[in-house]
Q: What sequence folds into this?
């Protein structure tokens, strides 16, 4: 074999790896294999349960974000949706003066409130983007600021406790959390892969003008994708509130980089048109493994932040590389 | 591609079997130190003081910072449990959201000490080491009132509040109000600025208050880390003058950081309530050791702190952590 042939073969293999749908899964396995012998307790059953519990809320909210990113948009407001939904649902049912305190309707009303807040903010974002044609970055940045401020103002920064056990069940029990998160992820996966809406979402991200000419109801598709994203953030609020047994206006505040990072690491394109829930699940797993293992190694907070930042940057670079490989530019 | 996947799976299985325990061979004690943030000098000083105290006693310190995220803090405590640490020192996010993390440590039988902030005792066991925020804030403000009385004229006051979800902030606010209560003849509180422990919010709030009440001449901040914002606002309003100069705003704070020390040396800051970080670090580690050795430990260990002012600053500088940092 000549040197030229060998180089071509290497490039071909590299292309296949970079373009592979399973790249992030390989990265997860490689990370696990490398870190397990050196990070104490990393591969123990107890820690694997910890990893599962940690990744579930992130998986739910990142699943919603995947829908929006495939359309070529972005939703920066998901963290403030988590905060607002958490305090709205909790304030309604808290034993410390909630409107539905001790009511048999408290639990369903609390859950529905969280979901309604998520869907409502998602609908607002979608309407601004699709009907008013405002840039998604600006719209969701503004709603992030507004709703985050609203959550803090409405609670005066106070956490809300004394919540009914039924409301805490979804987030407090890791297996129920897993069931909820997997249901959301599976439903989103089926919507994207098996339904007309899924095809419209991909079409909207690949080429909006062509999609419009082809009869895709672009406005409705965009509104629905933001609404689903908001709804997913509402479910994440339910899980986080249950896990921490408290409604708080700062829940999720520092999660935005993890949410978008997980989706992009998974392989969903920042340019729109390409993505899958299964990829996002891989990205969520990879980011959680990094966080958990570096923490077990007792690395400093700043080192963990630097590693995570570098991994997300690398994923964004891979995304660009993939786009070039697939378009041949 | 299948071969690569198979290789990774084999490697993972091998790693799972060979993974090692957190307990180190030398049999040294291991303590997990989980802080909510390192965003202010106070927390950095506390973190370093605890690590130094642990190192002095030949104890291994594992560190984790949750970046103000209660969910991450819970994961970090669960990681400590997984690692089988002997004790945990935790700065909780707030009084309520950290309860599941404390419960996780309780369930694993690992003693846990809450450094500087305490949580609600909602069915969980912990030892709290905390400054007496109420008494220290009250003492500081009472000293400021003495200074105000010496001017012979009434004063309009502004107080910068912390995050009222934080029990420390509430204690300091209540200490301020209690000190003022008996001196309404000379002090009128015209502005209560909520900062949520945020520099920008504090700065904007103080600027607005000084515009609305240009005659404010008495200012207490719930934390010294907000002093740069406050100084900036005072300068913008032409009210930043040394003690003894006409137009001086009687200025007091809480914490005892390096900025406070610098302002005190330059003659701008009248007094600040100092949390004794070194006492708190030593008491936290000692409480863990006492718990591990089965000795009785009180539920709450109070850091008495002290009020430092122009009259005693040179005598107490060695105990003021901000001064110690500055000298380094």
A:
């Amino acid at each position: 074999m000549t040197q030229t042939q060998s180089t071509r073969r290497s490039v071909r293999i590299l292309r296949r790896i970079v373009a592979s749908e399973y790249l992030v899964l390989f990265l997860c396995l490689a990370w696990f294999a490398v870190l397990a012998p050196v990070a104490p307790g990393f591969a123990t059953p107890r820690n694997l349960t910890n990893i599962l519990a940690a990744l579930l809320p992130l998986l739910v909210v990142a699943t919603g974000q995947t829908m929006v990113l495939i359309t070529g948009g972005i939703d920066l407001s998901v963290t403030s949706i988590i905060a607002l939904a958490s305090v709205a649902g909790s304030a309604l049912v808290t034993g410390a003066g909630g409107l539905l305190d001790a009511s048999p309707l408290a639990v369903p009303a609390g859950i529905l409130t969280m979901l309604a807040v998520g869907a409502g903010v998602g609908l607002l974002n979608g309407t601004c983007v699709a009907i008013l044609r405002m840039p998604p970055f600006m719209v969701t940045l503004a709603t992030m600021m507004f709703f985050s401020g609203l959550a803090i103002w409405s609670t005066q920064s106070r956490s809300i406790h004394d919540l009914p056990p039924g409301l805490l069940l979804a987030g407090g029990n890791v297996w129920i959390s897993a069931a909820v998160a997997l249901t959301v992820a599976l439903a989103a996966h089926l919507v994207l892969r098996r339904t007309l809406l899924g095809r419209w979402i991909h079409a909207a991200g690949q080429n909006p003008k062509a999609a419009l000419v082809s009869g895709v109801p672009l406005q409705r598709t965009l509104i629905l994708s933001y609404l689903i994203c908001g709804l997913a953030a509402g479910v994440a609020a339910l899980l986080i509130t249950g896990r921490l047994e408290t409604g708080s206006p700062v829940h999720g505040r520092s999660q935005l980089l993890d949410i978008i990072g997980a989706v992009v690491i998974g392989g969903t394109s920042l340019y729109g048109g390409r993505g899958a829930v299964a990829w996002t699940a891989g990205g969520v797993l990879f980011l959680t493994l990094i966080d958990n293992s570096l923490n077990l190694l007792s690395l400093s907070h700043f080192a963990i932040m630097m590693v995570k930042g570098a991994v997300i940057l690398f994923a964004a670079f891979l995304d660009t590389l993939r786009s070039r490989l697939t378009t041949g530019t | 591609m299948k071969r690569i996947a198979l290789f990774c799976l084999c490697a993972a299985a091998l790693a799972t079997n060979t993974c090692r325990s957190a307990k180190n061979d030398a049999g040294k004690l291991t303590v997990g130190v989980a802080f909510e943030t390192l965003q202010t000098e106070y927390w950095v000083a506390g973190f370093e003081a605890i690590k130094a105290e642990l190192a002095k006693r030949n104890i291994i310190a594992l560190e984790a910072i949750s970046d103000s995220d209660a969910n991450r803090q819970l994961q970090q405590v669960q990681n400590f449990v997984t690692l089988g640490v002997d004790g945990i020192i935790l700065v909780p996010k707030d009084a309520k959201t950290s309860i599941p993390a404390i419960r996780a440590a309780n369930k694993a039988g690992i003693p846990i000490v809450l450094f500087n902030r305490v949580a609600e005792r909602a069915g969980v066991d912990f030892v709290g080491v905390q400054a007496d925020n109420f008494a220290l804030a009250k003492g500081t403000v009472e000293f400021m009132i003495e200074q105000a009385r010496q001017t012979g004229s009434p004063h309009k006051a502004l107080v910068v509040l912390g995050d009222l979800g934080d029990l420390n902030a509430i204690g300091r606010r209540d200490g301020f109000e209690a000190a003022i209560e008996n001196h309404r003849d000379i002090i009128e509180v015209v502005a209560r600025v909520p900062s949520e422990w945020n520099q920008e919010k504090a700065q904007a709030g103080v600027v607005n208050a000084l515009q609305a009440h240009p005659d404010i001449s008495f200012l207490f901040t719930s934390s010294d880390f907000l002093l740069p914002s406050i100084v900036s606002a005072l300068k913008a309003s032409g009210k930043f003058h040394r003690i003894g100069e006409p137009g001086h705003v009687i200025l007091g704070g809480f914490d005892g950081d390096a900025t406070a020390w610098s302002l005190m040396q330059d003659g701008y800051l009248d007094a600040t309530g100092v949390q004794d970080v070194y006492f708190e670090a030593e008491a936290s580690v000692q409480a863990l050791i006492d718990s591990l050795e089965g000795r009785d430990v009180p539920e709450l260990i109070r850091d008495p702190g002290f009020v430092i002012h122009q009259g005693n600053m040179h005598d107490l500088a060695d105990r003021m952590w901000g001064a110690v940092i500055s000298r380094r």
User: Anything to note?
Assistant: Chain A has a mean pLDDT of 90. The first helix of chain A runs from residue 3 to 19. Chain A touches chain B through 52 residues (CB under 8 Å). Chain A has 14 helices and no strands.
